[in-house]
Structures are given as C-alpha cells and as structure tokens.
Write a structure and sequence with these properties.
about 15% strand; two-stranded parallel ribbon; five-stranded parallel beta sheet; alpha/beta
Length: about 325
C-alpha cells in the first residue's frame, strides 16, 4: 500500500498555519530563543513534558507563561519550594460539616498547562506526586483516582544542580520529560532589544490566538507525517550506539557510558522528529529533523560513568560523537 506524500503534505501545510501566528505572538514578549519556542511547540504537539534548565533570569518562566497566554486554555504556575507538600499539587479531602462527608478539593495540577517553576527545589515526596500525573495523566486523592484534562502538559524549569538549595531530580522522573533544554544567554544584540522593550518594567501584552481543539487536531496530523523506514533505522542506530558503542564503531566511548538510552528515547525521538517536520510545514521526516531534536531528547537519558566525569566528559560530548559517527541515510 503506497503512501500519498503529496496529500499528507497538503494536510500538514493546512494544519500548521497556526505555527507562524503563534510564534509571532510570542515574539512580542520573547526576544530571540527560537530553539526554545520550537521545543515548547514540539511538547505541545506530542503530549511531551519539557524540562528547561538554565541560570535564573533567562526568560524560562516568561516563555512558558506566554505560551499559555496565546492558547485559549487553563494555566497554573506552581512555585516549588523545600516546604512544598504533595497535597499542594494534587489537592486534598475536605470535611463537609453539613453532609458529614469528605469532599475532594482539587489542586493546581487540575489544569491544562502546568508551569513547575524551579522544580528541583522541592523534596522527593512532591516529585513522586508529580510523577504519577506526568506519566499516567491522573492523580489520586484519598482513594479516588481522577483523570486529568487533555491537553495536560508539564513545563518545568530548574536551576543548575550545582547551585545552592537544589535537589537532584530522580532519574525515573527526568526520563519522563520528553525534552531537556539547555537555555543559554542571549546575544549582545538580543540583550539590547530586551533592554529597549522591557527596560521600563512593562511586559507587552499578547492575545489568545489558538484554541485547544486546533492543538488536538494538529496532534492527529503530526501522527500521520510519513517517516521512511531508513529514517526509522537511523533513529534506532543512534539509540543503540548509546548502549553498544563498540558495535557502532565507537570504541573510544567504551567505559564512558553507564546506561544508554531506553526504548522510551526511541519513541520520543520519533515523535519529536515528526513534530519538528510539522513545524516546518512538511508531511515527511528527514534525517535533519532527527538530528535537530536528538540532543534535546537524549542528553538526559545517557548516564555517564565516574571515569567520564573524572575526564570532564558530559553526555552531550558523547552524543555529539554518536551523531557525527552514525551514517546518515
């Protein structure tokens, strides 16, 4: 059975018209950072949670809140602190004196877009409560389980682990994030524009330009984007190279990788590549789509050994060698 690429292309072009509108609206507030904006869209289109890491003041929180403002949906911001409790996220049971019964009081997780601000400042119990919501898209209050609304997207920010007053996120939770973004400083020109635009203390207003049903329709279109078997094999080769580097001709990586990427990485890389093609208005995936999102999908899934840490070799260094070495179809 043949695949009609031209027909898929036409549908994607039609479905993706909102992308430029959404980007231009966000650009009223966010200066530069096109990669971050693209990745936020990829998360939205694939139901993938995103972790943004960077020092304070790089507009991580502002970008997420702006995204929520341009979409006609519910948004909650949760500031994570060391004294936060699980009930502060999911809610609790409240005793009703009139009826003599306990009734649920739902917490801020019962929203569409969740900003988990400085997620690595909260203790393990809170991380566990968030984990169920992220993975199962449901929360349990008392003995009753409640499904969360669709779309449900957790966009979390964190300061670098080495900064004071932070807790390393559990590996199991980090793996639930589809993408981990490293946010860098703006250029000199971008900094000048930030100063001119916001130096007086006011933030430009944005309008709601997208409805939720449009996002859900776009998700269906993303799933239809064609991926050639050769591109699928390329994705598998990249993932397997993190597990068996010697078999992939990367003998110099022996002893540097403690754990490679899991099958979840393969699935997330496939979905992210399709969403990247959608944002570009294409109905098919190219190897360049895979390479563009690959680092963000894999950087938190390749765990280095003590030997690598001693030599100051990061997971990103290892992945760069993988991308440079694996043959592109």
């Amino acid at each position: 059975m043949g695949v009609d690429i031209a027909q898929i292309n036409e549908r994607i072009k039609e479905e993706s018209t909102f992308v430029s509108l959404l980007k231009s609206e966000m650009a009223k507030v966010i200066v530069g950072q096109p990669r971050m904006v693209d990745r936020l869209l990829i998360g939205l289109l694939t139901r993938g949670h995103i972790l943004l890491e960077g020092v304070p003041g790089l507009a991580k929180t502002l970008a997420i809140s702006t995204l929520a403002q341009v979409i006609d949906t519910n948004f909650k911001r949760i500031q994570f602190t060391p004294d936060l409790l699980p009930a502060d996220l999911i809610g609790t049971m409240i005793y009703n004196q009139k009826t003599g019964e306990f009734i649920p009081k739902k917490g801020p997780l019962f929203s569409n877009i969740i900003l988990a601000d400085e997620i690595n400042r909260a203790p393990a119990k809170v991380q566990s409560a968030l984990l169920e919501a992220m993975q199962e898209r449901q929360v349990t209050i008392g003995d009753v389980t409640y499904k969360l609304d669709d779309p449900f997207l957790v966009l979390a920010t964190q300061n670098p682990i080495e900064q004071e007053g932070t807790y390393p996120l559990p590996e199991a939770q980090v793996d639930r994030f589809m993408l981990k973004l490293k946010i860098v400083y703006p250029t000199r020109e971008e900094e000048k524009e930030i100063l001119e635009r916001m130096g007086k203390g006011s933030i430009p207003e944005v309008s709601k330009v997208i409805k939720v049903d449009k996002i859900i329709s776009a998700r269906d279109a993303v799933n239809e984007i064609y991926m050639d078997p050769k591109v699928e094999d390329y994705i598998i080769s990249l993932v397997f190279a993190t597990r068996e580097p010697q078999a992939a001709g990367l003998a110099d990586l022996k002893g540097l990788i403690s754990y490679g990427a899991s099958p979840r990485a393969t699935l997330f890389l496939t979905r992210a590549a399709r969403a990247h093609a959608f944002i570009r208005g294409r109905g098919y995936v190219t190897p360049e789509d895979v390479k563009s999102v690959g680092m963000d999908v894999l950087r938190h899934r390749v765990i280095t050994t003590y030997e690598a840490e001693a030599e100051n070799i990061t997971s990103e260094d290892i992945l760069q060698k993988v991308f440079d070495s694996i043959e592109v179809p």
